[in-house]
Write a structure and sequence with these properties.
Elements lengths: L6 E5 L4 H12 L3 E6 L2 H10 L4 E5 L5 H15 L4 E4 L14 H29 L2 E5 L12 H21 L5 E7 L2 E2 L1 H4 L3 H10 L6 E2 H12 L10 E4 L12
Parallel strand pairs: 1-2, 1-4, 2-3, 4-5, 5-6, 6-9, 7-8
The structure holds nicotinamide-adenine-dinucleotide.
Keywords: Oxidoreductase
InterPro entries: KR_dom, NAD(P)-bd_dom_sf, Sc_DH/Rdtase_CS, SDR_DHRS6-like, SDR_fam
Protein name: SDR family oxidoreductase
């Protein structure tokens, strides 16, 4: 019960990695403030978690809503111990082909909302000696073909993580990122089956990951088990970023 008495706000909680993280933290005692744009899915998920979760519908492409969710959490629970910035979208497109509106949308959800939620949460996290975990991506560590906006947003998240970590360490707030490799969630489902299989094939462990395998690392990072860990990024990728790319 590592999260007994803790309040965790998790964005993108209705699906994939966010839902797996909410389930795990709730099982270990956390009260979950579950945020997502997908109202019906979120309601069904919160019902599954019973009295331990509260649903809050927000569109994080809107900066006002990204900040307002923190106020709503405080109004509900009176405090915030853990902010999991997890909601994210991808967008295929090389820079020359990418609609600037799509660039803006990806940056708004994947990077701006992380900044806006974090800045609004920090006074509460300082009071609670809490922490922030952001779901970044190995696409922000290296780069993936045809993902100009996503690579850039996730690289920005990694920079912001380090900045927040050093700026608020003295006030007792830890800030870290977890970078998944290819994970079998609805985010990947729009990809052609042969591409999905290829992701598994090029990964040293020979398979894509499961949402629960990321959730366990997010929960570790957010828990007191990681009490001296801040400003770090943990790649959970079946060995993908350890590989130079040269053939076997
Ligand atoms: P997912 O699509 O299953 O879940 C993402 C959730 O975010 C959804 O419930 C969606 O409704 C919500 N969301 C999308 N736009 C939103 C908005 N504007 N406002 C509020 N909520 C919004 O995807 P996932 O794979 O669980 O992704 C979670 C995080 O993990 C994302 O940040 C993603 O970039 C990152 N990630 C995923 C993978 C992967 O392979 N699945 C790899 C690396 C990083």
């Amino acid at each position: 019960m590592r999260f007994e008495g803790k309040v965790a706000l998790i964005t993108g909680a209705a699906s994939g990695i966010g839902a797996a993280t909410a389930r795990l933290m709730a099982a270990e005692g956390a009260a979950i403030f579950a945020v997502d744009i997908a109202a019906d899915k979120l309601d069904a998920f919160v019902t599954e978690l019973g009295g331990q979760a509260v649903a809050h519908v927000a569109d994080l492409s809107d900066g006002d809503q990204a900040e307002a969710m923190i106020d709503a959490c405080i109004a509900k629970f009176g405090k915030l111990d853990i902010l999991v910035n997890n909601a994210g979208i991808g967008a295929l497109g090389k820079a020359a082909d990418l609609d600037p509106a799509m660039w803006r949308k990806v940056i708004a959800i994947d990077l701006d909302a992380v900044f806006l939620a974090s800045r609004k949460a920090l006074p509460h996290l300082i009071a609670a000696k809490g922490n922030i975990v952001t779901t970044a991506s190995i696409s922000g560590m290296g780069a993936d073909y045809g993902f100009a906006a996503y690579n850039s947003a996730k690289a920005g998240v990694l920079g912001l993580t380090k900045n927040l970590a050093i700026d608020y360490a003295a006030q007792g707030v830890r800030v870290n990122a977890v970078s998944p490799g290819p994970i079998d969630t609805p985010l990947m489902a729009h990809m052609p089956a042969e591409l999905l299989a290829e992701f598994g094939r090029v990964t040293p462990m020979g398979r894509v990951g499961k949402a629960e395998e990321i959730a366990k690392v997010i929960a570790f990072v957010a828990s007191d088990d990681a009490s001296y860990l801040t400003g770090q990024n943990i790649a959970v990728d079946g060995g993908l970023t350890a590989h130079t790319g040269q053939p076997d």
